[in-house]
Amino acid sequence: MGRIVVEVMPKPEILDPQGKAVARALPRLGLDHFAGVRQGKRFELSVDGEVTGELLDAARRAAETALSNPVIEDVVGVYEVDEAAR
């Protein structure tokens, strides 16, 4: 079984209140190394068999039409998960 990951982030010009809340909380936890946080979404799509170029193209289409809101979000990644690397 193969898996494809789709990553979606808010467009840079869109406010990210969840990211801001996390950024404010990190220093209180002693994690003051980070200048900012943006929170996005990650989808894992399972497929029967091998991940092919055709399936990656279909995942890109799904990302652009169903998994993201193109007005406020960018699809920043569509890729196969390498199970051996995990």
List its salient traits.
single chain, 86 residues, alpha+beta, Mth169, Chain: A, three-stranded antiparallel sheet, 3 strands, 31% helix, elongated, EC 6.3.5.3, ATP binding, ligase, PurS-like_sf, PurS
List the helices and strands and how they pair.
Elements: E1 2-10, H1 17-28, E2 41-47, H2 53-67, E3 73-80
Antiparallel strand pairs: 1-2, 1-3
Catalytic activity: N(2)-formyl-N(1)-(5-phospho-beta-D-ribosyl)glycinamide + L-glutamine + ATP + H2O = 2-formamido-N(1)-(5-O-phospho-beta-D-ribosyl)acetamidine + L-glutamate + ADP + phosphate + H(+)
Pfam families: PurS (PF02700)
GO biological process, one term: 'de novo' IMP biosynthetic process
Provide the gyration radius in Å.
16 Å
Structural class: alpha+beta
- Supply the number of helical segments: 2
N- and C-termini, Cα separation: 15 Å
Walk across the major sheet and give the strand order: 2-1-3
Number of domains: 1
CATH-assigned homologous superfamily? Phosphoribosylformylglycinamidine synthase subunit PurS
Low-confidence spans: none
Instruction: Report the sheet-strand fraction.
Output: 25-35%
Could you say which overall geometry the principal axes of the C-alpha atoms support? elongated
Integer average pLDDT? 95
Number of beta-strand segments: 3
Helix content: 25-40%
Largest sheet: 3 strands, antiparallel
At the third CATH level, what is the topology name?
A: Mth169, Chain: A
CATH class reads Alpha Beta
The succession of helices and strands, N to C, reads EHEHE
The CATH architecture name reads: 2-Layer Sandwich
